Amino acid sequence: MIRLFQTNVVRKLKELEGDWDFQPVEADGTLPSEYRYRMPVPGCWEMHPRFDVYRGKAAYRTTVQTAKKTALRLTFKGVSHTAEVYFDGEKIAEHYNAYTAFSVIVPEADAGTHDVAVLVDNSFNDASALHVPNDYFTYGGIIRPVVVEEIPDTFIERIEFIPSMAGSGWQASINVYVRNIGNKDTEAELRGTLAGTSIHMGKRLIPAGQTAVFHANQMFNGVNAWSNAAPNLYLLQMQLYSASGGEPVDDLIERVGFREVTTHNGKIQINGEDIMLKGFNRHEDHPLAGAAIPYQLMVKDVELMVDMGANTVRTSHYPNDERFLDLCDERGIYVWEENHARGLSLEQMKHPNFMKQCEGCNREMVEQHYNHPSIIIWAILNECASDTPEGREMYKAQLEQIRSMDQSRPLTFASHHRDKELCFDLADIVSFNLYPLWYGEEDPGELCDQARKWADEAGGLGKPMIMSEFGADGYYGLRDPARFKGTEERQADIIRRNIVAYQARPFISGMLIWQFCDCKVTEGNGWLLSRAGTQNSKGIVDRYRRPKLSYDTVKSLFHL
Ligand code: ADA
To answer: 451 C-alpha vs ligand 1 centroid, how far in Å?
Structure first.
């Protein structure tokens, strides 16, 4: 399954799902001559008994068929973490970062059968600034769907939909990117529909090799807004016609919602109404699937979160699978989506590839997930060096990059620097990762009063404040009336005291528990990488989604 709705009627596309040929290769190796294994796509190779601890390079291979000579676009929704793509033995693309999609175009594929091979590398090598040994696991493999599309020389690349309230109704600004990969200038016309309203974007000449942006700004009468309580969605269907008219030559369908996010008076508003975010940080992780979470399990996660009374999920610490975001759109779950970086020191941020890899991730995240109404916040760089002047420059550049692409969502970053934070003035929302009663003995209420003061004095005055992480270890099944640290009882006590304190403070706009489910972490040395069971055990459910005692605690408080 690629998306939760049909993205094309005219364009032909196919998911390359199933078993691909698979073969591990040497670190400096290229495509093997022989493949001795089969591996599911999407999937993580750690799920195969021969590769459960394999970290390194491996090749995947499959075939695609075309009935006629055509241009093809191959889209990889997530390869963990570095990919080299080969088409009929020739290298055609490279990509870094497990958690964003990338596409590659084959301008002329002859009719017949073609080989597609992908060299995948999940090693923590010198070139990798973001995938490093960390408090989650970098799996190996083609972890999200792969799609092949037959595209005409001039095709619709992507759509941006920006809704805004206009009096008692809604208007939207729509940008459609049309790309000409041919060697002739082409005249094309764009037409579409949304909620029963026609959209005429006119004709344009698109020079060979270039992309044109078609634009419309219009009212949409009678539409219902998207919100947590009523997640109304509409299909935005755009068709591309050649200058001579006739049948459309290409199309693209997006699913959109009419909603506006604002931050005023220290609060976050959806469609003008103040909201309170209650929810979870969630890693895409399961013992039987790794990071390649199947759709059924995404639904299970959403059902569990909603059952507990949550309305928000933070995609800690990377952009999530589009199908999960589609599901959040459908269920009216608010999403804080963030780029991929966790706990990197200034030294790690000075890695020569750090800014380049972050910029790529930011661009892909925003472009690819622009139209999800559920995403109400973009964030960057969880717990990195925002307490240093050099770190601040990098935070500033990345926030500016995202703001230049999207002015319709507030920006934030999760900080653990307390009174040393230097970047609150750069964000729209101030967010704190504090672990009162777990990493320290502070009272949660007193600590967040203190945090409000730190924020106010450091450029965050008047901005909404989110408690973006709090929590405690609770080892599934470890129960003891003495309620010592690590028991389910103690975890439930800590969660309760935190939530009660935050609910009593009107200056708090959100509380996100660390974390929804336990997750596997990288094995190594030092306290972070030698956690008991090689997992972060602060989940309210365990890795198999079995509820701990704190499940009912959260449920009773989030439903208040
Ligand atoms: C941090 C971090 C999380 C996790 C958590 C913990 O705040 O953002 O990824 O590591 O701490 O469990 O300590």
So the answer is: 18
Average pLDDT over residues 341-359: 98
Instruction: Point out the ligand 1 atom lying closest to the alpha carbon of residue 317.
Output: 9
Distance from the CA of 162 to the center of ligand 1, in angstroms? Answer: 33
Site of tokens 């060096």: 385
Whose CA is closest to atom 5 on ligand 1? 514
Q: Which domains are seen in the chain, by residue range? A: 18-144 (2.60.120.260), 154-256 (2.60.40.10), 262-558 (3.20.20.80)
CA gap 248, 149 in Å, rounded: 16
- Tell me the CB-side half-sphere exposure of residue 139, using CA atoms within 13 A: 29
| Residues near 246 by beta carbon (within 8 Å), at least 6 away in sequence | none
Q: Taking CB atoms and a 6 Å cutoff, what residues make up the pocket around ligand 1?
A: 135, 342-343, 382-383, 416, 433, 469, 514, 536, 538
Pairing of strands 277-281, 508-513: parallel
CA-wise closest residue to 225 among 172, 271, 159? 271
Closest CA to 86 of 54, 56, 64: 64
Total length of the chain? 560
Summarize pLDDT for 137-179 with one digit per residue, the tens.
999 999 999 999 999 999 999 999 999 999 999 999 999 999 9
Q: Which ligand 1 atom is at minimum distance from the Cα of 135?
A: 10
Alpha-carbon span 10 to 248, nearest angstrom: 7
Q: 304 C-alpha vs ligand 1 centroid, how far in Å? A: 22
